[in-house]
Design a protein that fits this description.
The chain has five helices and 49 strands. The strands form 13 sheets. Strands 22, 23, 24, 25 and 26 form a five-stranded antiparallel sheet that branches. β24 and β25 form a beta hairpin. Among the domains are: 169 residues, Neuraminidase (6 Propeller), CATH 2.120.10; 81 residues, no CATH class; 94 residues, Immunoglobulins (Immunoglobulin-like, Sandwich), CATH 2.60.40.10; 81 residues, Immunoglobulin-like.
Length: 723
């Protein structure tokens, strides 16, 4: 029926996939929200990230030129490299033969501290470098900008205390290890033992184990919380969390004499990140192993919240203090966590399907209580794959405006590159062009939508569609933005559009793309509206009228009553109706996938001649209750052709034609001829004289027509197609 017609129309109205939310890429940043930076001619891997007070972003990592070097890149707030920093935004530092930079932190005075380790004389030790705001090494720090910590074998993380002292965390003799520098880069000998702290952690069975720090953080009171893992012969790897007083001693009020060990997964667990909520509670990120699938690691991301007072698990968070993020049956790793101003927690890490060699990244968000924030991304998270080979997010941070920044590296064309991308987060649209959409005069099948642009918006595109249509058509259109621009309406200023022919009781979205005066296009946004409910609470039913019955066609007019919210109609043969029974036949029509709302006036074609059919309409009221079905029986006509006239031959030529054709044959003199369209309207009528007649319906629409010839009260028919 008209279902085929609707299938052609809906693609023009429906495309796009998701409304803008916190996981959408910020198109004002870099290229489509992403920045890739090649440093030198070889690999560059960023492991650390910090955001300056002016909003500029600093990435820290290792770069390969002729050897491994410390590398920094600084980006402006729009993602472009900051040409006022180093050489066109990049600084590389040589410290010995091989230098491996990891973390970075920004001092209150804007100076940049980069931390990592070097390999020299057959061993590793930690090294910190401090830079001025322009990227030059700070000669007042350490020795010409470089501070060595020879007793700290490794450095993975750096934190700056409120007094300006710098703490580096890694490991010392295969145990948790810290080292502290004074603000001038000299070793702070008042800290721990001559500037260093080593902590040997016992496993859950009380046996000594080896342990390694992955990340450290400084509380507001300058106590240091170190997070990592320990290796135990009894329990595999467990998450280890240690808190230190400002003098480097263990905080005896925290956990078990300063130490918390957690075996969440029962197998191997790793702590990888730490941060703090506003009230001081400690957020620890990591991942727990789920099982032993041969050759394939199975991990879920885990976020733990500890009470600040004693390090106990905060049972009001997640499930008994831990929230699990399960994205794949294989590996979901945590690399970093950050806290938004509203207490929500954002998480990033690797999304790995080893069996498919898929190395992507994800960003997820938890509510402040540890539950999944289903409004973020695709039900709480979003997967990103900017490179085919490898995507490696390392750090995550939240800007003051609520946007989320993720830094790391990716592998493209056999080359590792620094990578940073930005998501919209909870940023408001006041700083970018935007359109406010409001609705009025909402009925069951129509509504008015008014678009009001803000001061930054020069023009905008808009289109109305359902989310289901969006999901179906966006992939074919090249994404929601391209679809909205191609099929949407382009306007400027305040504009009201009337939408009609809508479906009752249905959620629609007005999708918009706002364009600034400089040509910048903001990320697409959407506003939801629902059409009014049709029908009442009474008995829903319909009438069926059957007209213009021919050998192969029938016009079926179905009129629902006022109680009907939605109905379905259709035809089936009486033979099949009798075979499956009335109840099954009604159910078949109810599930035909073509809901109707108003009067359905449709011509059914391609029916079988001389066949009895059942026309069925079944209606549902606003409460979802089905009323009694209406069933009407009819039969198509037998085939009667021109040759049934008692004549030798009849010719209709040309057929098909442009509307001018000749009817000729012996014995036709005095017969009547009519041409009828498919609506039953007679478009031509005449008497045939001298056994032939020239018919002209060239002014009629193209389509199928019935030629009727009447002789002695008998009517014979034939078909003519006007092209």
């Amino acid at each position: 029926m008209k279902k085929a017609f609707l299938a052609l129309i809906f693609p023009l109205l429906s495309f796009g996939v998701f409304a803008q939310n916190g996981a959408d890429l910020d198109n004002t940043f870099g290229e489509g929200g992403v920045v890739r930076t090649i440093i030198g001619d070889d690999d560059a891997k960023a492991y650390g990230m910090a955001i300056q007070q002016d909003g500029k972003i600093v990435l820290s990592g290792e770069v390969i030129l002729d050897s491994f070097k410390y590398g920094l890149a600084r980006y402006n707030t729009n993602g472009s490299l900051d040409n006022n920093f180093g050489a066109q935004g990049v600084v590389t530092t040589t410290i010995g033969k091989n230098s491996f930079a990891k973390d970075v932190a920004i001092q209150e005075d804007g100076k940049i501290v980069q931390a990592g380790y070097i390999f020299v004389n057959g061993s590793y030790h930690a090294v910190a470098v401090r830079y001025l705001e322009n990227g030059e090494m700070d000669a007042e720090f350490g020795e010409n900008g470089i501070a060595h910590l020879p007793a700290l074998n490794n450095c993975m993380s750096v934190a700056i205390q409120s007094d300006g002292k710098i703490v580096l965390g890694g490991y010392k003799s295969d145990n948790f290890g810290l080292g502290r520098l004074n603000s001038d880069g000299t070793i702070d000998t008042s800290y721990g033992e001559n500037g260093y702290v080593m902590t040997q952690i016992q496993d859950l069975y009380g046996e000594a184990s080896t342990s390694y720090i992955s990340a450290i953080g400084a509380q507001k009171d300058d106590k240091i919380v170190a997070v990592g893992f320990l290796y135990s012969y009894n329990t595999y790897n467990d998450i280890a969390i240690v808190r230190y007083n400002t003098d480097g001693s263990l905080d005896a009020e925290f956990g078990n004499q300063g130490v918390v060990v957690s075996n969440i997964g029962g197998l191997s667990d790793f702590g990888t990140a730490v941060t703090f909520q506003e009230e001081g509670k400690i957020i620890v990120g990591g991942h727990k192993e789920n099982g032993f699938l041969p050759g394939i690691p199975e991990y879920d991301a885990v976020i733990i919240r500890l009470n600040a007072e004693d390090g106990s698990f905060d049972t009001t968070f997640g499930e008994d203090g831990a929230a699990i993020i399960h994205l794949t049956e294989e590996a979901t790793y945590v690399n970093d966590v950050a806290v938004q101003a509203d207490g929500k927690i954002v998480v990033t890490g690797a999304y790995v399907i080893y069996s498919e060699q898929k190395f992507d990244m994800y960003v997820a968000r938890l509510n402040a209580d540890g539950s999944i924030d289903t409004e973020f991304g695709d039900g709480g998270s979003r997967i990103f794959a900017f490179a085919v080979t490898e995507n490696a997010p390392q750090k995550i941070a939240v800007q003051e405006d609520g946007k989320i920044v993720i830094g790391g590296f990716l592998m493209e064309d056999n080359l590792c590159k620094f990578m940073v991308f930005r998501l919209m987060g909870d940023a408001t649209s006041t700083d970018i062009p935007a359109v406010e959409v409001t609705f009025d005069n909402i009925t069951t099948t129509s509504l008015d939508a008014t678009m009001t642009p803000n001061a930054l918006c020069e023009s905008y595109y808009f289109v109305l569609m359902t989310a289901a249509d969006m999901q179906m058509w966006a992939p074919f259109m090249g994404g929601p933005e391209a679809a909205i621009k191609q099929f949407g309406i382009h306007e400027s200023g305040v504009f009201t559009h009337h939408f009609n022919d809508l479906t009752p009781n249905t959620e629609y979205f007005v999708y918009t793309i706002s364009v600034g005066y400089d040509g910048f296009e903001a990320p697409y946004d959407s506003t939801m509206v629902q059409t009014a409910i049709l029908g009442g609470n009474g008995v829903a039913t319909a009438t069926i009228e059957l007209t213009e019955i021919t050998e192969t066609t029938v016009r079926m007019i179905v009129t629902p009553n006022s109680e009907t919210a939605v109905y379905h109609d259709g035809l089936i043969t009486k033979e099949y109706f009798d075979e499956i029974g009335e109840e099954a036949a009604i159910e078949l029509i109810r599930n035909n996938g073509y809901p109707q709302y108003g009067i359905d006036n449709w011509v059914w074609t391609d029916l079988e001649m001389s066949t009895i059919y059942k026309a069925i309409a079944t209606c549902q009221n606003a409460l979802g209750e089905w009323g009694p079905a209406t069933i009407v029986e009819f039969s198509t006509l037998p085939l009667v052709g021109i040759n049934d006239i008692d004549t030798k031959a009849v010719i209709i030529f040309p057929n098909p034609g442009n509307g001018r054709f000749e009817v000729a044959g012996d014995g036709l003199s005095g017969t009547g001829i009519r041409v009828v369209d498919m609506a039953g309207k007679v478009v031509y009528s005449a008497k045939i004289g001298d056994n032939h007649i020239l018919v002209d319906i060239s002014n009629c629409n193209n389509g199928l027509y019935i030629v009727e010839i009447e002789k002695d009260g008998e009517i014979s028919t034939a078909k003519f197609v006007k092209q």
